[in-house]
Amino acid sequence: MGVATLGAMSEAELLARARRGDHRAFADLLRRHDPGLRALAFRIVRDASLMDDALQEAYVKAYRALPSFRGDAGFGTWIYRIVHNSSIDALRRTRDHASFDPEMAPAHPSVESGIVASLDVATALDGLSVEHRSVLVLVDALGFDYGDAAEVLDVPIGTVRSRLARARRAMRRRLEDGENGL
Amino acid sequence: MPPHRPGFWDAVEEELARTVSSPRPRDPSGSGEVVELSHPQPAARAVSPWVVASAAAAVVLVLGGATAILIRPAADPDAVATPDTSLNADLEADSLSGEVVTTVAQVARSAPWAGPRLLGSQVPDVLTAAWERAGNQRWCSALAPAATDLKRLAEGATVREAEFTGGWGIAWDRNEGAGQNTDGSDCLDCGRSAFGVAGTGSLHRPGTGENRNAAVTWSDGSFATIGGGGDEEGATYTSKRVARVVVDGQGCRYEVWSNLGEGHLFELIDSLRLVEGLDAAPVVLRTASDRPVVMAYGAPPWGEDAVDASLLDPVLLGKWDELGIATPQLVLTDLGDDLDGAKMRTWGSGVAWDKPNEPGHNNQNLPCAACGRGVAGIGWEPLSEDLSTSVPLPYRIEWEDGSYAEYGGRLADAALPRDRVLYFDPETGEETIDALQAIVHRPGSQVEVVVWTHLGQGHLMFLLEQLRVAESSK
């Protein structure tokens, strides 16, 4: 089956095909979610190469785990959660966990995506903790509701709410003070 | 947000294609579909650990609760199968929320340790040494990463023995990266204890509900919970991920940890195999209500090799005379290397051994860290109470002749099995190591025999193994 045909399929159809072992269908499914997944991964690891590593690992891991995907959550939430966790793992492996290292940072975040449209905002975001970055990207940039964000982050909804409040406060402070981590 | 590097999707598709390049095998347990192995598994005989270890006496743990008895399937030793031991295949997603639980595995599959055993020459010497010294070797077989996986998993790391009181452990140190300092605190870049495997001194207690939180459950009933990683609010993450693994057929809790990410942890678990010659006796877990943990040890050690009472130390015989103890009676025939040079003395109901600088108890009977008084001992006391109404100590050993021993902390209320039980002194506020004691009953005997040691559970088990019947030759 050609890619063009796959492209016309619904997400549910692609998922069903993927479950039957059609890896191209699964890849197509991933492509549909890839911009948002890329945004999340990049905001966590802050490095283009690491982002790709984390995504590749997450995509393969997700494919292996597909038989255990129960569909209780949407595919989107499920794959975001896997990407989130792979990105955290990738970040840990770099040992760039506790502090922001300008050497590891991207030269400039892309402004093309529309997800993070301002360089100032992007750099301020980079200065936040991993938890704050993740919740801001999910809720404020990608439009996840609190429930779905909680699913992805594997924390209670209340934690999403409080974490988000603290993250927004920290962002405001950084933007106002010009303290952007660089 | 940067674009993908050139060729990213080609690489992903290639990897995905490889993942499904062969027909999906069926789960050997028949419980469901399984996916491909995450890495090649050698085709070999799947020999269940309890089959290999069948020469050893069966150990049965009976644990508080209801009714279930986990009976091992009758394994065909000639059967040939390649078990799917891939844990990664189960990995749905992991958690960083801190407490436990990543994902509940939906499909049970063969446990890694159902795979072929490793030879002693294939595991680090430090593991053999640690296991042979461990106090839990009777119920806690050694597990080690398969050598082929180890090359990849432990690249650039050096292995050493890790201290797990009452158990055994090995840890790999790296030159850098997250790990643990010698005081157990986390470090970001010391590289120490980057990952490792241990059979802890704690016995597993089924029915505590932890398997409800299992991240992975294998087809034999083994399961793992995953924890570590940060506090609830995510304010501080540590990179350490710890799997607490309960292996069917083993009485201890295993710990497997990694500071190199959950992927590394899961690969490490996937690689674990039993080791030829470092076996515990097979353990069957069952539950019973209002009963302590029970270990059935088969034939009692005093079943043969009776001791001629006339050869016993006159001090001991004098004590028996004083107490009115008649032979045949149980005596200790060996105290172990740790008590080499200890001096015997009498006490109210028996004899005790003192050795300087060892833990013991003072003449108020309170534990001391190094006073060396009463490091171990044995006593004989006439049965004076209705045992059916007494509160049982938390652990019970049963022998096939109807004898049994209950054991636990001497003073401390030790609800959990630990090699060393801590006693909290309410007056001084200090914690010291309490003795563990076992009270041995034999059918028909009107004497209960008390054996204690301050040197841990392993030493207590050793002492019980040294009990023999002393018979008068007259």
Folded structure, characterized:
The complex is a heterodimer of chains A (182) and B (474). With 182 residues, chain A is mostly helical. In chain A, 68% of the residues lie in helices and 0% in strands. Chain A is globular. With 474 residues, chain B is of the alpha+beta class. Chain B has helices at residues 8-19, 49-52, 125-133, 147-153, 262-270, 314-323, 457-465, and strands at residues 59-64, 143-145, 158-161, 168-173, 179-180, 186-187, 195-203, 216-217, 223-227, 241-246, 252-258, 272-274, 283-288, 293-296, 307-308, 329-332, 343-347, 350-354, 360-361, 367-368, 376-382, 395-398, 404-409, 421-424, 431-434, 436-441, 447-453, 467-471. In chain B, strands 13-1-14-22-23-26-27-21-18-17 form a ten-stranded mixed sheet. In chain B, strands 3-4-7-11-10-9-8 form a seven-stranded antiparallel sheet. Chain B has a three-stranded mixed sheet with strand order 15-28-16. In chain B, strand 24 (421-424) and strand 25 form a beta hairpin. The radius of gyration of chain B is 25 Å and the shape is elongated. The model of chain B is unreliable at 21-108, 207-213, 229-237, 284-291, 387-391 and 413-419 (pLDDT under 50). The interface between A and B is large, with 59 and 52 residues.
